[in-house]
Amino acid sequence: MTEQLKQYGGCLGMIVILIVIGIFMWRYHASEVQKEKAIATIVKQKADTDRLHDVAANQRLTAFYTRYNAVIDWGNHISEQPYTIELQNALIRTDNRPILVQGEIGDLLKNDQSISIYLAQKLNHSPSLFFDLTCDKYIADTIINNHSDGSTYAIYDVIVKVKTVTQNQPENDESNKSTSLSTFTITGQCIAIEPSQISISPG
């Protein structure tokens, strides 16, 4: 009888241990499920926030270039290694419309009677374009304030009225003539500018 009680007690103890282990595993699984749900919620919230930011940025950009009736797809008319005339046709518009440029401002320079902005843009498939643009004091002050108050924006959306397009002469290096891409300097007027919030490609 005593032996049977010992066996019964041993079985009961094993059952208790298994129950405890089961409860622990269930709680652990429930905890992991809650963690996964929490992570999924955070990821979704971030995705929703990013989507709303992109929507707002797109709306702001659309309102910006629409206000000036600017052309945004001018890069679609430029080949990988274009002739100057291709850029002239794409940028110096017969309909007198300005273009939207997105690029990095390299410098601001005050001349005798004007202020110049030097801006660079690299198209996805084409050579680099360097813009030498005149602007008014308000635009220059906007850039300077963004640069000096700690909220520097390296990339800007710029409405440009193009005047001239010139191909820059490559360095006199015979070995690189067949492989180097041309660069172009474009002069004109900066009509309006604002910090970029979303990346675009004109072509």
Oligomer: single chain
CATH architecture of the largest domain: Beta Barrel
CATH class of the largest domain: Mainly Beta
Q: Going by CATH, what is the homologous superfamily of the largest domain?
A: Nucleic acid-binding proteins
Write the H/E string, N to C.
HHEEEHEE
Outline the biggest β-sheet. 5 strands, mixed, barrel
> Could you give the count of β-strands?
5
Description of the molecule:
With 203 residues, this protein is an alpha+beta fold. It has two domains: 1-67; 71-195, OB fold (Dihydrolipoamide Acetyltransferase, E2P) (Beta Barrel). It has three helices and five strands. Strands 1-2-3-5-4 form a five-stranded mixed barrel. The longest helix has 66 residues, at 2-67. The chain is elongated. 18% of the residues are buried.
Write the layout of secondary structure elements.
Blueprint: H1 2-67, H2 84-91, E1 99-110, E2 115-122, E3 128-135, H3 137-148, E4 155-168, E5 183-195
Give the key terms.
203 residues, alpha+beta, OB fold (Dihydrolipoamide Acetyltransferase, E2P), 2 domains, 5-stranded mixed beta barrel, 3 helices
In short:
By secondary structure, this protein is an alpha+beta fold.
